[in-house]
Amino acid sequence: MAPDATHAEQPIDSDDLEIAYIGGGSRQWAPNLIQDLALSEFDGHVRLYDTNQDAAETNAEFGNWVQDDPDATAEWSYEAVEDLDDALAGADAVILSTQYDPRDTFVHDLRIPKEYGIYGAVAATIGPGGIFRAMRTIPVFRRFAAAIRENCPDAWVFNYTNPVHFVTRALYDEYPDINALGLCHEVLGTRWHLAMLAEEELGMDAERADVEVNVKGINHFTWVDEARCKGVDLWPLLHELKDGERGSKRFTYDDLKDDSVFSDNWQVTWELFRRFGVLPAAGDRHLIEYATSFIADGQESLNHWGVRRTDADYRAKHWTPAESKQTTNVEGWMEGEREFELESSGEEFLDILEGLTGDGPYVTNVNLPNSGQVSDIEQGPVVETNAVVRDNQVKPVNAGGFPRPVRSMVQGHVDTIETIIEAARTGDVDYAFQGFSTDDQVQTLTPDESRDLFGELFAAEAEFLTDWNVDDSDVLAKADTFDA
């Protein structure tokens, strides 16, 4: 059976595009988008909505400031709005890029599981930290989906918020007819790495766009079983490299101490490829959150495979441009403290928009509910495969299934995700704990430890979990770490 296509009723007008940016106070995504739009072939208006109104107003000021740059080729205007419905009214496209202050959330997602011996690398997508990020985000995204249904039911919705599979699923769970795409860089990074291998090992002149892969899985746990560069089959090369020096490097803490947490040494990737015969297509720092044995011995094991942990201090500083290398200081640009050069971010948002308006077809990886594109995973859960983007339509590509051991791993995480989604419909804390308990990282704990970890995380983040029914929870009542 061919997978279903996602399509809108009305085409996008590229000369008068209305974009609603939810999370418009973003310190990274919004500045990137503003620069991309200034260099695009589209014209229009962007409404920025954020619970942090000051941040949204700063980005609106920056967006209008960028329009005065001599290299800007498009005509855009920006405004910060205080009401969600006003932001969404009549929008052609909606961008979702949100998170709570990491000082109040992420730091707990990283610090508390570590006290129980779970040495997660990122804590953003799966594992105890990723699940709690989902639990505090899913109810918010259900409200976003309901507001989209009311104010712009035919809009194209682009979700960049993690955990992508949880929250994109929540959008469809609330509003099944939504035109929502979950987007992520990880497969793009794999294609870039494969292009680099083609250059270095085969002497080819290659870039990311030259590499085609057959990708399938769930976000941050995707797999490739075909890879070509300019038509050249890369599979024999990958099998050769996996057993050579490139595929067998090992590291210590001292080797990595000066590296960025985003450095990817591909050693987890090569090891999983050796074991299962299909190539993982996400960064090692994300893969190990799903393949838990790589972090079984804590920091030593993590570093052994070439991965640095994103620690709580890094997450806390991420909120402040002056303290974070990743966060964009747009005020420094506008005030002349930093030199500004208008440049493209390399994101695919505009490529997808161009495909939707008829400049296609365009093929890229997207997260959509499974309607058959992954053959041996149940229909409904959000999966990640390639999709063809053309006139007002996004159609996922049939990607096939997995070797049995890989399918078993992927299906286990799908079951965890679906359980949390089901629990969130009614705010059932105890059912959410059942999903939490099936997570691979949590299963390294005793039953009492997993209950206490759940209770401690819930207590630390209670102000962001108000949609959950605490009073009826037996699990929280029995947890020594939760004080109602």
What layout of secondary structure does this protein have?
Elements: E1 6-7, E2 17-22, H1 29-38, E3 44-49, H2 53-66, E4 76-81, H3 84-88, E5 93-96, H4 106-115, H5 127-151, E6 156-159, H6 164-174, E7 179-182, H7 186-202, E8 211-218, E9 221-229, E10 232-233, H8 235-242, H9 253-256, H10 267-276, E11 279-280, H11 284-290, H12 299-304, H13 312-317, H14 330-334, H15 349-356, E12 362-369, E13 382-390, E14 393-396, H16 404-426, H17 429-438, H18 447-460, H19 474-478
Parallel strand pairs: 2-3, 2-5, 3-4, 5-6, 6-7
Antiparallel strand pairs: 1-14, 8-9, 8-13, 9-10, 9-11, 12-13, 13-14
GO molecular function: hydrolase activity, hydrolyzing O-glycosyl compounds; metal ion binding; oxidoreductase activity, acting on the CH-OH group of donors, NAD or NADP as acceptor
Organism: Halosimplex litoreum
Keywords: Carbohydrate metabolism, Glycosidase, Hydrolase, Manganese, Metal-binding, NAD
Can you put this structure into words, describing what you see?
This protein has 484 residues and is of the alpha/beta class. The protein has a domain at 186-308. The protein has 19 helices and 14 strands. It has helices at 29-38, 53-66, 84-88, 106-115, 127-151, 164-174, 186-202, 235-242, 253-256, 267-276, 284-290, 299-304, 312-317, 330-334, 349-356, 404-426, 429-438, 447-460, 474-478, and strands at residues 6-7, 17-22, 44-49, 76-81, 93-96, 156-159, 179-182, 211-218, 221-229, 232-233, 279-280, 362-369, 382-390, 393-396. Strands 1, 8, 9, 10, 11, 12, 13 and 14 form an 8-stranded antiparallel sheet that branches. The protein has a 6-stranded parallel sheet with strand order 4-3-2-5-6-7, sandwiched between helices. α4 (106-115) packs antiparallel against α18 (447-460) and α16 (404-426) packs antiparallel against α17. It is globular. The mean pLDDT is 92.
